[in-house]
Design goal:
This protein is mainly α. The protein has one domain (about 5-65). It has helices at about 5-20, 30-50, 60-65.
Length: about 70
């Protein structure tokens, strides 16, 4: 099974194409973004597993509660 690409990985690939030979994936910012994304994915998975809790909400409500309204 092929691994899925995350949004942060996709963005780094696009930036590398745009900026040429710069290796975005070796930067401190990229590595930190990957760590943050990993934690967010794990948290979302855990929230899904624990969906039977009384404070469970749908994915849109979860996003707004966690990250705020970006609209």
């Amino acid at each position: 099974m092929k691994n899925k690409i995350t949004a942060v990985e996709w963005l780094a690939t696009q930036l590398e194409k745009y900026y040429g030979n710069q290796n975005i994936k070796d930067t401190t910012a990229f590595l930190r973004a990957k760590q943050m994304e990993e934690e967010q994915i794990k948290d979302a998975y855990g929230d899904g597993i624990n969906g039977h809790r009384n404070d469970f909400c749908n994915r849109d409500e979860y996003f707004v509660k966690t990250y705020g309204d970006v609209s």
